[in-house]
Amino acid sequence: MKNFFRLLLVPALVCVMGLSPVSAQTAEKTPPMPEVLKELGTRGAQIRYLGREKGLDGWATILQGQEQYFYVTPDGEAIIMGLLFDKSGHPVTIDQVAKLQSGDTALDALATPATPAVDPLQAIQEELRAQQNLSPSQRLMKEVEASNMITLGKNADAPVIYAFMDPQCPHCHALMNDLRKDLLATGQIQMKMIPVGLRDETKAQAAYLLAAPDAEDRWYKHLDGDTKALPVDPAINKQGVERNLLIMQNWKLDATPILLYRSKTGEIKMVRGRPRDLAEITADLF
Q1: 14 and 115 in contact (C-beta within 8 Å)?
Q2: Span 106-162, pLDDT tens digits
Q3: I want to staple 150 with a disulfide (CB 3.0 to 4.6 A). Which of 170, 182, 215, 277 is the partner?
Q4: Measured between alpha carbons, how far is 240 from 258 in angstroms, rounded to an integer?
Q5: In Å, how far from its chain's centre is CA 7?
Q6: How far is CA 126 from the centre of its chain?
Q7: 95 SS3 class
């Protein structure tokens, strides 16, 4: 709870959010979720209802460790982002989170100080506009680039490989170990991993990856055999993962891993399954 309370002292600045089950511990009746939160619900964030204080319904969201707080006006016509204080200056939001957190460990596990980010509504609108008059391969790549993903590798200037992966897929594990010890470790590539789940258990693990602030570290620990690195929480929001799965289904991609990348000549290429020869891919990239 220490980390979560520390960040509460800083006003929320970003608007990255998604839909998730409201807390079962909230005793009062949960009101309908605001439409703007539903609109952003497929981004993979977790949402909890904080309760009603000072006539305002409060909501907390967490995505990739960044948490935000929103309050809905009594008429439901407006949403205020930030912390709620009483007339004496006491942050009411802290009390609400503490009450909720006592029965919801995911808040502490996924929380980290927030940093500015791109407004997802604006990003979605830009993506839709960009998809007009594109070839099928270009449309697929645009959808992949707009999917919910985590970043592996520290070299932001390196060529990017997008990869659909199931946390329990043995071929995904083998591929990751191939890439991790060489191309990723040396900064020759950057991977955008798109977590999916073909079973309920792996969907929950994939959803946890999307919400976690230390996703890369947890993923590597999971690969190394740490069974606690990716907890399975049946109540976690899986909509971000479902959105990734929908992309696979729409393009008839029915197995993992799936790799997509742009070659050095700009050609979009796909590899289904674990590549037999990574040298062929690197020759395309460099």
Answers
A1: yes
A2: 554 554 443 344 454 555 566 566 666 788 999 999 999 999 999 999 999 999 999
A3: 215
A4: 18
A5: 19
A6: 19
A7: helix
